[in-house]
Structures are given as structure tokens and as C-alpha cells.
Amino acid sequence: MARLHQIKHIDIENTYWGYATSLWFNGCSHRCDGCWNSETWERDYSLEIDNQSVINETLVALDEYFPKDLSLLGGDPLAPYNVNDTKEILESILKKRPSTKVLCWTGYTWEQITNSKILNRALPYIDILIDGKYIKELHVDGHKYGSTNQRIIDVKASLRDNVVVKAPETHK
To answer: N or C: which end of the chain has fewer CB within 10 A?
Structure first.
């Protein structure tokens, strides 16, 4: 059972490729000072929704009006208490709609994720990862990330080459 604040059918802000459907996960243990989305921190079991319902609604939303890609944010979609649901949801969506590209924000670093048998479970289903905690003192405007320590990572290339491959700031 995933915990989601919302499934936003059309999201033009939290996207890499132009238009997205976004899943806003609940729960974040990073609690970054200055986080713009702190209302998603506390784990709220009243937000539970079965994964099949998330999958069904997301599949409809991805093609509603026009095709979109998928963005994951929150909270933290890769938190230990979210990652299994994230993996199951992505696996099912990509099986039925393999052309979907996935963008994910997480407070964990690439190194923490790839060195963990838990955090890395959803990684093969993600195309672009924005990693690292938000650091208020390193704040930056006008980017997909909030602070200069965060990276935009091409997940497929990084897994293939076994080294962090940064993705372009904006997709062209």
C-alpha cells in the first residue's frame, strides 16, 4: 500500500521532458531545513492507497488529453518504507506503457542508493534521478534541483557505465 499525497494528472513544473503525471509520495526522514514540501514529511497512514489503484489511475493520467511522462517526488519515493511500492508501481506501469520516461527526486545520494540492497530496488525503472538532500545554504533558483550539491543523473547510463553520468540540465 503506497502512501500518496496526490496523483497530479498534469504537471508542467515537476518534469524533465515537458509534461508529466506526478506521484507525490508521503514520508521523508531527511527533513531538510528550508524544504519547500515539508507537509509530506510525516508518515500518514490515512494516505494509503493500494498499489493497483495507483497503477490504474496513473495509466489513465499518463495518456489523458496527451501523452506524458512520470515524475516521482514527495516525501521521498526511495525511502525504505516507500521503495517497494515505488518499484511495484513503476514495474507495472512500464510493463503496460514501456515508452514512459521516469524522473525521480530523492534525498539520498547516488552512492547511498547504489550501495544499498533496499534503496536501489526501484533504480532500474528510473531514467533521470535528482539526488541528494536540499541544503538551504547552497540554494539555487531556476534549476530542477534546489541546491548546488544535488545532481541530475542519467540512471541508465550510470548503471551501464558503473559511474555517475550527469544528464543535461534540461532535456532537448
So the answer is: C
